[in-house]
Amino acid sequence: MTTQSEFQTLSDAAADKEHRRVAAATIIGTTIEWYDYFLYAMAAGLVFKELMFSNLDGPAATIVAFLTVGLSFLFRPLGAFLAGHFGDKVGRRKVLMITLMMMGGATALIGLLPTYESIGILAPTLLIILRIVQGISAGGEWGGAVLMAVEHAPVKNRGLFGSFPQIGVPGGLLLASAVLAFMSKIAPGDAFMQWGWRIPFLLSVILIVVGAVIRHGVEESPVFREMEKLQEKESAPVATLFREHWKLVAVAALIFAGNSAVGYMTTGGYIQNYATDPGGPVGLSRGDVLWAVTGSAALWLVFTLFAGWLSDRIGRRSSYIVGFILQFGGVLAVFPLVNQATPMSFFLGIALLTLGLGLTYGQQAAMYAELFPASIRFSGVSISYAIGAIVGGAFAPTIAEYLVQTTGTTNSVTVYLSIMTLIGLGCVLALKDRSGIPLGPEHEKQQWESPIRGVTKV
Question: Domain named Major facilitator superfamily (MFS) profile: which ranges (predicted)?
Answer without folding.
Answer: 22-436
